[in-house]
Amino acid sequence: MSIFGITSVISMIVAGWISDHSQWPRHIWAAIFMAIFTPTIVGFTLIPHGNLALLYFWTGAMGVGAFMFSTITNELSVEVAPSDQRGTVSGFINAFNQVGSFIAPVILGQILATTGSYVSSYLIISVFPIIAVVALLFVRESDADENVVEQKNVGQVSKNNVRQATKGEF
């Protein structure tokens, strides 16, 4: 359903805006947005049969829950990485996002095959975002701040080297 895609795209932009304009640390916002995912999975799972309005609501909510956090977690992952490894880190983040996109349905299918119940399967899967929330609470944004200072110092050294070279001071 297109409502899932529409809400996921909009929520990623909104999450970025909130992160940019808030005094709260980004990892806290990422944890809050990730925490939205579990109730949306549960809500989607428990839709009464034939209730189209709730199907649309919870499908849209799942788009928010499944993607709102990703804007911030992707950014944080790159920021806390050393400046000379940010491209590699970004590549790994993209790889893990893609791996998750094809492993999640496989895991859900295995749970479904074991339990024989869609409801049980989705309720079991809904625990994973809570695990991610706990992990996000341990992110040290101070590492990102140190990397920014380090990068500025490296930039300053480079500027000084250029000045010295143009003045023939080497």
Q: How is the main sheet built?
A: none
Q: What spatial form do the alpha-carbon principal axes imply?
A: globular
Number of strands: 0
Number of helices: 8
Give the low-pLDDT segments.
none
Question: Please, what is the average pLDDT?
Answer: 86
Question: What radius of gyration results from the CA coordinates?
Answer: 21 Å
Class by alpha and beta content:
mainly alpha
Helix-strand topology string: HHHHHHHH
Strand content: under 5%
The helicity comes to over 70%
Distance between the amino and carboxyl termini: 64 Å
Topology summary:
Layout: H1 2-21, H2 26-45, H3 52-67, H4 70-79, H5 86-115, H6 118-125, H7 127-136, H8 141-167
Helix pairs in contact: 1-3, 2-3, 2-4, 2-7, 4-5, 5-6
Label this structure with key terms.
170 residues, mainly alpha, globular
Notes on the protein architecture:
The chain has helices at 2-21, 26-45, 52-67, 70-79, 86-115, 118-125, 127-136, 141-167. By secondary structure, it is mostly helical. The termini are far apart.
Summary of the model, kept short:
With about 170 residues, the chain is mainly α. The protein contains 8 helices and no strands.
